[in-house]
Design a protein that fits this description.
The structure is a homodimer. Chain A folds into 3 domains: 123 residues, Alpha Horseshoe (MgtE N-terminal fold); 123 residues, CBS-domain (Roll), CATH 3.10.580.10; 174 residues, SLC41 divalent cation transporters, integral membrane domain (Tetracycline Repressor, domain 2). Helix content of chain A is 68%, strand content 6%. In chain A, a hairpin with a 5-residue loop joins strand 6 and strand 7. A 4-stranded mixed β-sheet of chain A has the order 1-2-3-4. Chain A has a 3-stranded mixed β-sheet with strand order 5-6-7. Chain A is elongated. The N terminus of chain A is likely disordered. The longest helix of chain A has 31 residues. Chain A contains 24 helices and 7 strands. By secondary structure, chain A is α/β, with parallel strands linked by helices. Chains A and B meet through helix 3, helix 12, helix 14, strand 5 and helix 16 of A and helix 3, helix 12, helix 14, strand 5 and helix 16 of B.
Chain lengths: 463, 463
């Protein structure tokens, strides 16, 4: 039965599981609810929770034991988990958060308003709360914000036998730690001095001091190290984790490779949402209508103002347009196509910035690289559109006006799109958020101006 | 010196390192080049390679020992690595690929044309080549495509002492494997029967059969398991890796958590590029101008045709527009704003699909959730634009026409944008690629139609 009951990937429940979950929640039968949830594949659990209404979701978490509730929250997206725990009284919320690992706690509480997070922290075990506060002090995408504070560390005056004895005595507890390394600190100061490969302990003489078995002066990272640098570090080395140290070299925590990979993935997912205009946090459709509507509007309302500004160029050339009304057909095409060409360059720049393949100061390099693409693509697209205009109306001057305008505007848009993310990064603004709207406003204005100005100059030939 | 020379995150070279790399490459001094590259932080290595011209890049890889060249290729993006190795004679290319780990080999060769990949495979060690061919047979984002084939496996008739002896004898070789588990297979058939935690061997009696120490019937995945299911599995369990099995339960490889996290991150990054119109593979600016230009044009040229189709609606209502030329100002605004609103809904749907929070068949559920947002945001944006039109021209009917058209088109666009990715997924098309262009074409047509049809009906009141 190797591919049987425990394998993953196939099968689906015949009835919808969330109706059963809702029924069990309302019946208040904790034991049957817990055993039912355990039979569901993780994907179905996340889906089922998102399908319950707010009231049932809260009742579900209240009904479960805190450890079960914590497991459950780890299976739903952070935004949804935060939305759930927000409405909870602080005491049960603290009990649930207390069952999570240190980095998951910090992730969840970091999603909440400072006020909500503080009331949960006050209801927690003071030592654990202090640990979370420490993690929350570091920005989320730094070594400090991503590290876990559950790690094994031994003073450097211990022997191999001491460590093996400790591992044996606390085996059950440590089995959650998922580490292949223990760390060695200077007895007294807590300064990191070495890393101990657990595998090496297998073959070491029991009475050796661990200082003789450890890897001395291991690679470490400062708590402030950025996600970009961490990503590079783990790409260059096969480490499962690296120790994180404070300003005096004291060991603060362990940063696992998986935490870095997850943060990189999360950032890429956030990038995708942001360029599409989903701002203010991840949106899942289980969030209340008002929240979803308002978050989307916050971005749209800035955009509509920018759009009105750009379109005012058309109003300015209204008389020209009236005399060659056919141009009105081409204005939205030139606006949209320039936006598309520019956004391709924006995407490549954002990607290259995040991969470290370009530095924010290298505007001229990007200009050199993009102007070639802009020139070629501008000429191709301009000829295409100009050709369509010529064939449709049989007027070569119309073809010339719209073709030349699109060609010139494509060149401008591609160059600007390539450079904008770098410039925004230098100004410490978010390229994923600001590049798109800013770019399309400028290219719309220039595109409309080019078409209408050229038309104005050749008006007798167009009519 | 805890935070000294070996810590990561600070510092930058004063001169540009790639000029020095280029100089050393041209001098042909392998030893000095290798030692110089070792002094560079990984970020600088990737950056430096991307700044060399094609000729220097090839010369660099030819000059280095195959193992060093392999390390180097692992530090640059896959697209760039593939572009480099493509121009290589098969024999040295095979020597470099031979130094990579099994999953990296498959990733790199998977990026090449089938022909280029085959000529490298023919020049490789036949056993290794067969291994790569096996991996290439699985789609990239499945357990089979992501697994590594370097793993520890022992027949179930061995004893603890045998395993420890093997580990001791091959310690150096295995140290690359980065595993905490060995696997146990049925002697003879190769069927997976257990997993052996290396830590447990520490405390086991040496003469015990490993079958008594192993975890029996461990969780495994079929080679075809999709990335979505794998992501859910690793979210639900703390595994560092899981065994991958074939149809008869035979052990094929090991899937590491990091491989899944990386694939998820890569998919999110690809998503971001695709929605921005970068298709046909990742673009880095070190690729040749022709390739970059052509790839971008392939998407733009489809888009311009769609744009012309959409704008033909305006041509159809040219007479109406001539009589109320002021509407030409509002057409691009309505086109752009509807596109923005719809793309927000597209992004949320693509995200929910990838998180497993919605199933491709649940069109009605999405419609119910999006129609509320569409209605609210449509009314807000419609009132805003209508208000601007009214204030600007003092004509309430103009405000009514553009406001009502934007409101109705926003509702349509949001509903359609939410449902389109689900429908495309069901039709086995790529939502990230197709949703945007398809959506904007439909919403442009409807938006232009709504404005111009409404205006046509109220023409005497607008003039």
């Amino acid at each position: 039965m190797p591919n049987g009951a425990r394998s993953v990937g196939g099968g689906a429940a015949s009835a919808e599981p969330w109706t059963e979950v809702a029924r069990l929640v309302r019946s208040g039968d904790r034991a049957r609810l817990e055993s039912y949830l355990r039979t569901l594949p993780p994907a179905e659990v996340a889906l089922s929770i998102s399908r319950l209404d707010q009231e049932d979701q809260t009742a579900l978490l209240m009904l479960l034991a805190p450890a079960e509730a914590a497991d459950l929250l780890e299976e739903v997206p952070d935004a949804q988990a935060a939305d759930l725990i927000e409405d909870f009284p602080p005491a049960p919320a603290a009990a649930i958060v207390g069952e999570m690992s240190s980095d998951e706690r910090a992730d969840l509480l970091g999603e909440l308003d400072a006020e909500d997070a503080e009331s949960i922290l006050r209801a927690m075990d003071p030592v654990e709360a202090e640990g979370v506060r420490k993690l929350l002090r570091y920005p989320p995408d730094t070594a400090g914000g991503l590290m876990i504070t559950e790690y094994l560390a031994y003073p450097d005056d211990r022997r191999v036998a001491d460590v093996l004895e400790d591992l044996r005595a606390h085996g059950e507890e440590y089995s959650d730690y998922d580490v292949q390394y223990a760390y060695v600190t200077a007895a007294g100061t807590g300064t990191l001095v070495g890393a101990l490969r657990l595998r090496d302990l297998l073959f070491a003489a029991r009475d050796k001091p661990i200082a003789e078995v450890m890897i001395t002066d291991p690679i470490r990272v400062a708590a402030e190290t950025s996600l970009d640098d961490l990503q590079q570090l783990f790409e260059a080395h096969g480490f499962v984790g690296v120790p994180v140290v404070g300003p005096a070299g004291e060991l603060l925590g362990v940063l696992r490779r998986t935490a870095v990979k997850e943060a990189v993935g999360r950032r890429a997912g956030g990038l995708f949402l942001k360029v599409s205009g989903i701002v203010g946090g991840e949106e899942v459709r289980s969030l209340p209508l008002g929240v979803r509507s308002l978050r989307r509007l916050s971005w749209l309302s800035v955009n509509i103002v920018l759009n009105i500004v750009a379109a005012s160029v058309i109003a300015f050339y209204q008389d020209t347009l009236e005399k060659a009304i056919i141009l009105a057909v081409f204005l939205p095409i030139i606006s949209d196509m320039s936006g598309c060409s520019g956004n391709q360059a924006v995407a490549v720049s954002i990607r290259e910035l995040s991969l470290g393949l370009v530095r924010p100061g290298e505007l001229l390099r990007v200009l050199a690289k993009e102007s070639g693409v802009g020139l070629i693509n501008g000429m191709v697209l301009g000829s295409l559109l100009g050709g369509v205009a010529l064939l449709w109306r049989g007027n070569p001057y119309l073809g010339l006006v719209v073709g030349a305008a699109l060609a010139a505007n494509t060149l401008l848009s591609v160059c600007l799109g390539g450079m904008l993310p770098l410039a925004l990064k230098r100004l410490r603004m978010d390229p994923a958020l600001v590049s798109g709207p800013l770019l399309t406003t400028v290219t719309d204005m220039c595109g409309f101006f080019l078409v209408l100005k050229l038309a104005d100059m050749m008006l007798p030939l167009l009519a």
